[in-house]
Amino acid sequence: MNRLSSAARRAVFAPLDTEARVEAVARRLGDAIVLGLLVDGEQLPGESDLAGQLGVATVTLRESLMALRQQGLVATRRGRGGGTFVRAPADTLNERLTQRLLAHTVEELRDLADHYAAVAGGIARLAAERADSPDLDAPRRSLQDFADAQDPTARARIDGRLHVELAAAAQSARLTREEIRLQTEIGPLLSLPFADDEAHGTADRQHRQLLDAIGAADPARARGVAEEHIHGGVRRLIELRLKGARAS
């Protein structure tokens, strides 16, 4: 069970920069679970600690956890060894993503891709300029996990984790939070083609090229690979969207 690096986890549990409503807290944690950033069986911090990290009142956090329990995303155990634990909905992820894809128009997907490519390119450039070799240990582990993954759902989760780890390697808390936000909006959709082994292989090659460019401290090449990775994924995604529209 590979977990996020400490830098990426800090972004997941960073204080909310919006009004600290129950819905906002539940969405932040729920998105992290659905994306696989918080893994199945992982124990969340204690209520007082987690509320402090997120910058919300304990009562707000408790209501948010209650909403997540109702969604089946967390479970609470009492007694020794108890706490709140993640329950990752692996069996429903693909269905959720397919419905989300069909809700987008082609124009919206292209616009999202333009924004995401710009952010991903900036992250890659900064990572190439700032990351030391130890900063890339977590992305390299995720890189190998992605290459080895046979299940499309696992591929989707690992891909999201890899991109968040790369954002953390760029050493920008704001960009890491933006990467997580974009992952919830379009990142998981880009993983839908991973059921196809060819698409998985293409993504794997691009991941390796990206890590190679960052490791070689080549900002221009890293940015170019990152942008092409996003735009290429969206082209495949639009094909799926059009097929889904015709089928329905």
From TrEMBL:
Keywords: DNA-binding, Transcription, Transcription regulation
Membrane-spanning intervals of the chain: none
Record PROSITE patterns: HTH_GNTR
Protein name: FadR/GntR family transcriptional regulator
SMART domains: FCD, HTH_GNTR
InterPro entries linked: GntR_C, TF_FadR/GntR_C, Tscrpt_reg_HTH_GntR, WH-like_DNA-bd_sf, WH_DNA-bd_sf
Keyword Transcription regulation in record: yes
Organism in which the protein naturally occurs: Streptacidiphilus cavernicola
HTH gntR-type domain ranges (all copies): 19-89
